From TrEMBL:
It comes from the Bacteria. It holds the Pfam family GTP_cyclohydroI. Toroid-shaped homodecamer, composed of two pentamers of five dimers. Residues 60-237 form the GTP cyclohydrolase I domain. The keyword Nucleotide-binding applies. Signal peptide: none annotated. Keywords: GTP-binding, Nucleotide-binding, One-carbon metabolism. It catalyses: GTP + H2O = 7,8-dihydroneopterin 3'-triphosphate + formate + H(+). The keyword Plastid does not apply. This is GTP cyclohydrolase I.
Length: 243
């Protein structure tokens, strides 16, 4: 959870103006005791115009990485703009879930007092591993058992929230727990179940070069933990949508 003081511009401006934008943001986060691991969202610590400045700084440092790799970006027309492209890709796309605020979720009161199992999926997952920054591509299924007091959220918002959580360097075990925490806080259901299965390109493209393996993991909360029939129903309905 983000510390409220991060939204107060008079607080946490610990770093002087002449430091780099990433140093200023980092100083603010440190001052406020806010964690900034690879899979944390830091949007509340960004001031106006800083995202653009950050893109510039990442491009500059990426250029340094290309130089260190002894790539002649000055005469190689293919890599001349690579540093800028990679910076845009990291900040706006593949790690965008770190820098943009959570999507707005339309919620509806549960006027019909629905208390039946609802499953959404497969939702496509595009993420990357924190260890090698290689892609993770997969699918997620979400099961919700609402109660009379639950907020119902628009169907498309499950996919938007999933993308916001996954578009960060992640490990799969933490990614599903983060997604479950967000959904539980917003919906307040009697039960929540998530299954994710994904391919990890750090295992396909490099390293062990195992092309077949898929990682599957799940989170079960509330009624899905205590009620084996409900859990079985979710898992068997997921199997149908999987085929
Ligand atoms: N538990 C878990 N491991 C992951 C995930 N994504 C990638 N990994 C693994 O993280 C490990 C990182 O291991 P290291 O030994 O530090 O890195 P490495 O020497 O490059 O390892 P190799 O990949 O075996 O070459 C690798 O085994 C990856 O397959 C994930 O989501 N969860």
């Amino acid at each position: 959870m983000l510390d409220r003081s991060l939204t107060d511009r008079t607080l946490c401006d610990a770093a002087p103006e002449e430091t780099s934008v990433s140093e200023r943001i980092r100083a603010r986060l440190t001052e406020c005791g806010q964690r900034f691991h690879a899979n944390d969202n830091i949007s509340a610590a960004l001031r106006e115009g800083e995202l653009e400045a950050l893109r510039g700084e990442v491009a500059e440092r990426m250029q340094g990485v290309l130089s260190a790799l002894v790539i002649d970006t000055a005469s190689d027309h293919n890599t001349a703009e690579t540093a800028k492209r990679v910076a845009r890709m990291f900040v706006d796309e593949v790690f965008g879930g770190r820098y943009r605020p959570a999507p707005e979720l339309t919620t509806f009161p549960n006027v019909s007092r629905l208390n039946e199992l609802m499953i959404v999926g497969p939702i496509v997952v595009r993420s990357s591993c924190s260890h090698h920054l290689c892609p993770i591509m997969g699918r997620v299924w979400i099961g919700v058992l609402p109660n009379a007091e639950s907020e119902l959220i628009g169907l498309s918002k499950y996919a938007r929230l999933t993308d916001w959580i996954m578009a960060r360097p992640q490990i799969q075990e933490e990614a599903v727990v983060m997604l479950a925490d967000e959904l539980e806080t917003r919906i307040r259901p009697d039960g929540l179940a998530i299954v994710m299965e994904a391919e990890h390109f750090c295992m396909h493209w490099r390293g062990v070069k195992d092309d077949q393996s898929v990682m599957t993991n799940s989170v079960m909360r509330g009624a899905f933990l205590t009620n084996a029939d409900l859990r079985r129903e979710f898992l068997s309905l997921r199997r149908i949508t999987r085929e």
